[in-house]
Specification:
The chain is built from eleven helices and eight strands. Helix content is about 65%, strand content about 10%. With about 350 residues, it is α+β, with helices and mostly antiparallel strands. Strands 2-3-1-6-7-8 form a six-stranded mixed beta sheet, with helices on both faces. The N terminus is likely disordered. The protein has two domains: about 170 residues; about 150 residues, Reverse transcriptase/Diguanylate cyclase domain (Alpha-Beta Plaits).
Length: about 350
Amino acid sequence: MITLWDLARHEKLNEHVASTVFIYLMVAFCLFATWANPNNSTAYLNWALYILFIPLIDDNIVAPEFLVRALGIVAFWFYTNTVRASMFYVSLVAVLLILGLMFKFHKQIHSHLLLNIELTAWIGVAFWITQTQLTLTASLMGTVMFVLMNWFTSLYWSSERLANLERNRLEQQVNSDTLTKAGSFFAFKSDSASALATAQRNNSPLTLVMFDIDHFKNVNDTYGHAAGNAVLIGVTELVQNMVDTRLYRTGGEEFNLFFETPKAQILPLMQRLHRQVKNADFVYEGQHISVTLSMGITVLNKGDLSFEDVYERADANLYLSKRSGRDCITVDGQQLALA
């Protein structure tokens, strides 16, 4: 049976192969252009050199792909140089060393502008000093042109990288609660919708746990909002260390968890979690603070049309826990016995 993972891996392999073949075709065209129009051979050779080397510092290149392209560079070196010249072997050793550095540090080179420029300068020098048929001025211009071409590419990559970093930062802000680092309400809505779709498609279980910190307003009023924030952070860390799924802060002191697991397997864990929070001692500036949790738990039913149906049932169960005096767990209308 072919899985989606197999298809994705096969598609990725095809992309790597197609990219390498395209690079070789472009280099072949540049070499043909050098033969057909020798007056512009410097430009064509620079393009071939650029096409061969620059993709090697791409973040997504894999080892076999790098090796195949490196062999192409060595072949290009032999083709475009006088093999019997002593300078050729000096340049060949230099390019092999450069290839080794690129293989080991290509991600650092990709993200470091100055290092990128320095490396390409050495590539240009290593290649153009072997072109003995050219004048010193032509070789120097070839080297400078190659460095400038790569400099432009590096500047573009740097600006793209900065844009990606900013985009990731904004996504992090949207998807994470600033105070507790738990998932945000926005992330909860998005992730829960995906989990619901998966559960309905695969006919698999989905359990939702909603809980509040009891009398949290009293914590703020008695100890101060900074202490209340410390409690929120402490509860988040305690809960997150006990579960293997993401915790979401969906309100002031309201949190949610969902598990792609049957309810029967989740209830013992929630009993332990409830007990751990109750027994925890949260300390802020010498003040010892204890809190309890009220929980509401439900599961996905066949008649549920959206995650809102599940969420509303969990919320109703949480309300029953509060009506029952708080510090308890309600599962689909029934109070769960606590150890």
